[in-house]
Amino acid sequence: xxxxxxxxxxxxxxxxxxxxxxxxxxxxxxxxxxxxxxxxxxxxxxxxxxxxxxxxxxxxxxxxxxxxxxxxxxxxxxxxxxxxxxxxxxxxxxxxxxxxxxxxxxxxxxxxxxxxxxxxxx
Length: 122
Fold this sequence. Notes:
Elements: E1 2-4, E2 13-15, H1 18-36, H2 40-53, H3 58-75, H4 78-94, H5 99-121
Antiparallel strand pairs: 1-2
Helix pairs in contact: 1-2, 1-3, 2-3, 3-4, 3-5, 4-5
């Protein structure tokens, strides 16, 4: 099945076989459901699996970024925020003009900066 690499990215179509696409949709759907229920760790794993299957899917990247952002903030874990920053950098490559990507990028960078400042002040 041919699917766009990322919405609005101008990239070529990506070929995914039906089994891979089905697994991707299941993982992405599971991640979305878990995220809506506040089960962030499980959601992050599900979105991670979706990204393994379809690395250029912008929606999966953004969803994992949001999940890691929430989880990293709630647990004040800079490692999770850095992982989210890696994802958002890839999302920027896929769709450099996407407003949501730019917003999340700024939010993550700001949070990481605050975490560093807080750690130094302790």
